[in-house]
Write a structure and sequence with these properties.
This protein has about 250 residues and is mainly alpha-helical. About 50% of the residues lie in helices and about 10% in strands.
C-alpha cells in the first residue's frame, strides 16, 4: 500500500528543468538600477530603503529581474538584504574618459557566461531570428524566459555598440582597431605622422562639406584593408538634408 502511494507520488510529482543563468534585463537597465543604489550611498544599501526608492512595498518580478541582471553584469553585490556597487559600476557611472567607459561596457557585455558563448558563436554573423529556440534546445534555457533573454541580449549588444542596423554582431577585435580614432573625432589629423618606410600616395577626396585626404601605400591595399577603411568612414556618417546631396 505504501509502495503504491510512493509510486503515485513520483508519477504525480512535476519536475522542472533548471534554466541556465541569464541576465533578465539589458546592460542599460542594469546600469539605471546601479545608479539608484549609487544615489542611496552605493554601499550596504538596505533592501527596504531600496524598495522604497523604487516605489515598491515588496519584492516584485521586476525587482528580481533588476537585481539578477545587475549581478550577472557584475555591477552589484548582494549580501543578505544589503546591496553594494562593484568597482566596475562606480567606474561606469563616473568614467575617467569616454574610452574607458566604452572599454568597460564591452567588458561588461562579455561577463555573463551566456553572452560570452553567444558572442563567440555569432560574432561577425547575423543574429538569427530563431535564437530563442537555440537557447531552449542548446543552452537549457526555459522556454518561458528564452524570449526575454534574447531581448536583453540584443538590447545589450546595441547599447555597447556591437550590434547595428544590419543585425550583425561585430567582432570586438575589429572594433578595437577603430577605437583610437573613433574616440578622438576632434583631433587635428594633419598633425599625425605615418610611421612607414613604404612609399605612399595622398589621395584627395572632394566632399559635400570640404575635402578629405587618405594616405595609402603606393602598392595598393587589400580587400580587408578596404573593409577597415569603410568601417572607419561609417563612424563619421551624418544625415544629409533632403535635396542637398554631396556633389
Amino acid at each position: 500500500m505504501v509502495e503504491n502511494e510512493q509510486k503515485e507520488t513520483k508519477v504525480g510529482k512535476r519536475t522542472f528543468q533548471k534554466s541556465r543563468p541569464y541576465p533578465p534585463i539589458g546592460i542599460e537597465e542594469a546600469l539605471e538600477f546601479a545608479e539608484i543604489i549609487d544615489k542611496l550611498g552605493g554601499r550596504n544599501v538596505s533592501e527596504p530603503i531600496l524598495l522604497q526608492e523604487l516605489g515598491l512595498k515588496t519584492k516584485t518580478k521586476s525587482f528580481w529581474a533588476k537585481t539578477a541582471g545587475a549581478k550577472q553584469f557584475n555591477l552589484i553585490t548582494v549580501d543578505g538584504k544589503t546591496y553594494t556597487l562593484t568597482e566596475r559600476a562606480r567606474l561606469l557611472l563616473r568614467p575617467k574618459s569616454e574610452g574607458e567607459r566604452k572599454s568597460l561596457l564591452r567588458e561588461t557585455f562579455l561577463t555573463p557566461e551566456l553572452y560570452k558563448d553567444l558572442n563567440e558563436r555569432f560574432k561577425e554573423k547575423p543574429i538569427p531570428d530563431t535564437l530563442s529556440n537555440i537557447l531552449y534546445h542548446e543552452y537549457s534555457m526555459n522556454k518561458n524566459v528564452s524570449n526575454d533573454a534574447v531581448d536583453a541580449f540584443i538590447e545589450s549588444a546595441k547599447f555597447v555598440g556591437l550590434l547595428g542596423h544590419d543585425n550583425v554582431l561585430k567582432s570586438l577585435m575589429a572594433e578595437s582597431e577603430l577605437t583610437p580614432i573613433a574616440e578622438n573625432k576632434d583631433i587635428d589629423t594633419s598633425k599625425q605622422t605615418v610611421d612607414t618606410k613604404s612609399p605612399t600616395i595622398t589621395v584627395p577626396i572632394k566632399l559635400s562639406k570640404g575635402m578629405a585626404s587618405i594616405i595609402l601605400p603606393e602598392s595598393g591595399i587589400t580587400q580587408k584593408d578596404s573593409e577597415r577603411l569603410q568601417k572607419l568612414i561609417n563612424i563619421y556618417l551624418i544625415e544629409e538634408s533632403a535635396g542637398k546631396d554631396g556633389e
